[in-house]
Amino acid sequence: MSAAAPVATAQDVAPGGKKNRKLLFAAVGVVAILAGAALPLVVDISSLLGKPKEGTQDKPHAETKTAIVPFGDMVVNLADERAMRYLRVKLAVLVDADQEKEVADLLAKKKPAVKSKLISHLAGKTLKDVSGTVGVNRLQREILERFEEVLYPDGHSPLRAILFEEYVVQ
User: Fold this and answer.
1) Are both 113 and 42 inside the same structural domain?
2) Does residue 11 lie in a domain region?
3) Residue 6 lies in a domain
4) What is the pLDDT of residues 45-58, one digit of tens each?
5) How would DSSP label each residue in 121-158?
6) Is this prediction's pTM over 0.70?
7) What is the predicted pLDDT for the residue at 147?
8) Residue of 38, 52, 56, 66 with fewest CB within 10 Å of its CB?
């Protein structure tokens, strides 16, 4: 009486399903590429990256001349459980040239306090903490903070950077 109706499968219903999906992915890819290529036309990418636009390099502030004030050598044992390791550094401080005399005088006056603060900070470092570019850069920032804590506790520091003249880990 009634004939069995054939059951429709997914392939019978959408014969071009895989082709349509591939076409959709290709279209999305092309749109993404075009959007990425057009983005610099709409958005100022250099300002997002913190770089000044070409031709607009007005000097934000006059070129500040800097001076280097030597601090001296320091040797500190590192906190390494397996072996006796130490860090030997020769430090200098980068300052604005007009502040060189004041910083040099203050540094000479408070050198024992600065050294004590640095020794207590560096003695807790391990070989891993002081190795590699990341470790050295981090250590420069941390040492600068220790200098500023002792020399300029009010927060108005003319110190620009800590420079390593020598850096030896053994």
Assistant:
1) no
2) no
3) no
4) 666 666 655 555 55
5) HHTT--HHHHSHHHHHHHHHHHHHHHHHHHH-TTS---
6) no
7) 94
8) 56
How is residue 77 written in tokens?
């044992």
| pLDDT tens digits, 4-44 | 555 555 555 555 567 788 888 788 877 777 776 666 666 66
How many helices (H) and strands (E) the chain has is answered by 6, 3
SS3 content of the chain, % helix, strand, coil (to 5): 50, 20, 30
- Domain for residue 103, yes or no? yes
> Of 106, 101, 107, 100, which is closest to residue 67 (Cα–Cα)?
100
Phi, psi of 39, deg, nearest 5: -55, -45
Number of folded domains that form the chain:
2
Q: The domain containing residue 33 runs over which residues?
A: 16-58
Residue keyed to tokens 């604005």: 96
- For 12, the token pair is 């019978």
- pLDDT tens digits for range 130-145: 999 999 999 999 999 9
Give the Cα-Cα-Cα angle 91, 92, 97 (nearest 5 degrees): 170
